[in-house]
Design brief:
about 250 residues, alpha+beta, about 50% helix
Length: about 250
């Protein structure tokens, strides 16, 4: 694709797809040809050769339209977010699996999650990020959510263009949410929409090919408060996020 930004997670609306346009453009010629064939068929003085030609043209147009609509539907499916981002989801899942296996053997890093957010265009003046794949390590959730660029560790990583770690020392969920409001720029309404128990997180920005503009951010979190302060975990995440960054800049 070689785009300056990543495609979103929202599916195209009906009028944005290709196959309805094929139906719209192909319909009138088929109607005209069908009407001509029917008129010649009912006319007792019509030449049989003319009737056959009209019917043949009508069937030919209908067959051609069917082929074009089928091709357009196939292209629409290829352009769906599940297909466009399946490689990215596989890459994030690979990193998540490696990290989870490592942590399980060392009894750290409970319920790790990982996902990817894109910068919503324009990337030169970003205002929002959008989660474009579901969480690896969770039950199919998250894709399509948007967040203001000024909130959370993901937004701050995008603005600073540097990897960031959040480790909350607080003992209760309420204290954690108060920290998110005071330290990480969330509003009370935004905090209420967040999942519980995410006491540590890490965000790694992904830059475009020029190295100037962030186009996305890799995000991980866990209920383990000190997970991303461990040197071994940081090393694994560093290798995994580098591979994902390389994939993103080459794939999109």
């Amino acid at each position: 694709m070689h785009a300056t930004y990543l495609p979103g997670a929202q599916r195209k609306r009906f009028w944005q797809k290709k196959w309805p346009r094929e139906v719209l453009f192909s319909g009138p010629p088929i109607l005209v040809a069908g009407s001509a064939a029917a008129k010649n068929w009912r006319d007792p003085v019509s030449d049989p050769w003319t009737i056959g030609l009209a019917i043949t043209v009508c069937l030919w147009l209908a067959l051609a339209a069917g082929v074009r609509v089928a091709g357009a539907r196939a292209e629409d499916r290829k352009g769906g977010p599940d297909v466009v981002h399946e490689g990215l989801y596989a890459a994030v899942c690979t990193m998540h699996t490696m990290l989870s296996e490592w942590c399980n053997k060392r009894q750290c890093g409970a319920d790790i999650r990982a996902t990817f957010h894109r910068v919503v265009p324009p990337i030169h003046e970003p205002r929002e990020i959008e989660q474009i794949i579901d969480y690896a390590g969770a039950n199919g959730e998250g894709a399509g959510r948007t967040f203001p660029i000024h909130t959370g560790i993901t937004g701050r990583a995008i603005r600073s263009r540097t990897p960031l770690v959040m480790s909350s020392p607080h003992a209760t969920e309420q204290q954690l949410r108060t920290e998110l409001i005071r330290e990480w720029g969330y509003t009370e309404a935004e905090v209420r929409r967040l999942g519980p128990g995410r006491y540590s997180a890490m965000a790694v920005p992904v830059l475009d090919r020029s190295g100037q503009h962030p186009i996305g951010v890799i995000y991980l979190d866990s209920s383990d408060r000190a997970l991303f302060e461990r040197d071994d975990v940081v090393e694994i995440v560093g290798v995994g996020t580098k591979a994902i960054s390389d994939f993103v800049t080459k794939r999109y």
